[in-house]
Amino acid sequence: MDSNAVDGGHLKAFIERIEKLEEEKRALADDVKDVYGEAKSMGFDPKIMRKIISLRRQDKGKREEEEEILGLYLSALGME
After folding, report:
1. How many domains does the chain have?
2. Which GO terms describe its molecular function (predicted)?
3. Do the beta carbons of residue 36 and residue 46 sit within 8 Å?
4. Do residues 40 and 55 share a domain?
5. Are 20 and 56 within one domain?
6. Nearest-CA neighbor of 67 among 59, 53, 45?
7. For residue range 4-41, what is the model confidence (pLDDT) as tens digits?
8. Is the pTM of this model over 0.85?
9. Which residues of 44-75 are buried (b: 16+ CB within 10 A; e: fewer)?
10. Range of the domain at 13
11. CA 20 to 30 Å from 44, out of 1, 2, 4, 69?
12. The pLDDT of residue 3 is above 80
């Protein structure tokens, strides 16, 4: 294969796959947004829910270490 040649068929297939995945990603993001809206309408705080989801993704040990450091810093600032 010539180093300047481009396989248009393969390139098109990759581009179309990426476009399809990007479309699916947008649809999922819209679904997530709808769920947050539904939760908010029932009195839940979406900002706090996002924080909880972020915390649940973390390793337990890492989360505990960050909480300990946060507590230490808050205490040093007289905020605890």
Report:
1. 2
2. DNA binding
3. yes
4. no
5. no
6. 59
7. 788 999 999 999 999 999 999 999 999 999 999 999 99
8. no
9. eeeeeeeeeeeeeeeeeeeeeeeeeeeeeeee
10. 1-44
11. 69
12. no
